[in-house]
Amino acid sequence: MKPVLEVKDVQKRFGGLWALKNISFMVGDAEVVGLIGPNGAGKTTCFNVVSGQLPPSSGEISFDGQSIVGLRPNRIVRLGLSRTFQATSVFPAASVLENVIRGAITRMNVSFLGSLLPTPGSAEAMERARERCMQLLHQVGIAHVHDHLAGALPYGYQRRLGVAIALASEPKVIMMDEPAAGLNPEESAAMGRLIRQIHESGQASVLIVEHDMRLVMGICDRIIVLDHGEQIAAGKPDEIKSNPQVIEAYLGAEAVH
Ligand SMILES: Nc1ncnc2c1ncn2[C@@H]1O[C@H](COP(=O)(O)OP(=O)(O)OP(=O)(O)O)[C@@H](O)[C@H]1O
Ligand SMILES: [Mg+2]
Question: How far does the centroid of ligand 2 lie from the alpha carbon of residue 182, in Å?
Answer without folding.
Answer: 14
